[in-house]
Specification:
Largest sheet: 7 strands, mixed
Strand content: 15-25%
Mean pLDDT: 74
Structural class: alpha+beta
Number of helices: 6
Low-confidence stretches: 48-53, 230-234, 236-255
Radius of gyration: 45 Å
């Protein structure tokens, strides 16, 4: 048997080893847990605002050349610009007037005081703005007496001929009668509007009628597929409702 001293020494050595192991584990730093980082917001470069309309060097050059023109040439350039503005306004006005022809009077600001209404089908024509307004007013009055303006429709298509400086309007109207037993009327026509191409300025003074519409020519006017021989519209009643439009015949002689 082992002596008591050897047993005591072995126990002491074993206990010291255990204590040393625990102390060593206690001194070790704890393992770091993996940390999840927050996602960083995405950053984008600042957006540069770019204009959709760029002034080309050629445009700047043209403006500079315009400033350097002589008074005569500058006046010609200004006249062309004003004519283009008048054409643009006339297109807008006609585009708005045709669909509402039966409901309200048209805008007469685009017409010259010498506006004429002509047609190859008849020599009858108006020769002034006042007679043109009366002819349009009588036509609208007669149409509104027979047809319902709220249910009737007028459609149009227009093209600008820059070579001749003319606006061509093709229009189609479906007229709904107020009398439910009366037949509907279908009108197809072509109107041509010509502009005054005379000088805008006379002795340095701007002409009031310069660049405005000076002629309204009706090239075609069909009512239910038949030619209306005497525009504006006073022969329609004979073809559509069998009535005589003698009261309108004098409109063409007004001046």
């Amino acid at each position: 048997m082992k002596s008591a001293a050897s047993i005591f020494a072995m126990s002491a050595a074993f206990s010291c080893g255990v204590i040393h192991q625990h102390s060593t584990m206690a001194l070790q730093p704890p393992a770091r847990m993996p940390m999840h980082r927050r996602p960083q917001p995405l950053t984008f470069p600042p957006i540069q605002k770019l204009s959709t309309v760029k002034e080309s060097p050629q445009t700047k050059k043209e403006l500079a050349e315009t400033d350097n023109l002589s008074p005569f040439l500058r006046e010609m350039v200004d006249e062309q610009r004003e004519l283009q503005m008048n054409v643009g306004k006339a297109l807008d006005v006609l585009r708005n007037d045709y669909p509402h022809f039966l409901r309200r009077a048209p805008d007469y600001s685009i017409y010259s005081t010498d506006i004429s209404l002509t047609s190859p089908q008849t020599p009858i024509a108006t020769s002034s703005l006042s007679s043109y307004q009366r002819a349009i007013a009588i036509s609208r009055t007669m149409l509104n007496l027979l047809y319902d303006p709220e249910r009737s429709t007028v459609q149009n298509r227009m093209v600008y001929d820059s070579t001749r400086c003319q606006i061509r309007v093709s229009f189609q109207a479906e007229l709904i009668p107020r009398n439910l037993l009366a037949p509907r009327a279908y009108i197809d026509g072509i109107s041509v509007y010509s502009f005054d191409l005379g000088p805008m300025y006379v002795e340095g003074v701007r002409r009031i009628d310069g660049g405005k519409i000076v002629e309204h020519r009706i090239e075609k006017l069909l009512v239910n597929g038949m030619a209306a021989m005497q525009p504006p519209y006073w022969n329609v009643w004979e073809m559509v409702v069998g009535q005589h439009g003698g009261t309108l015949a004098g409109a063409g002689a007004w001046s």
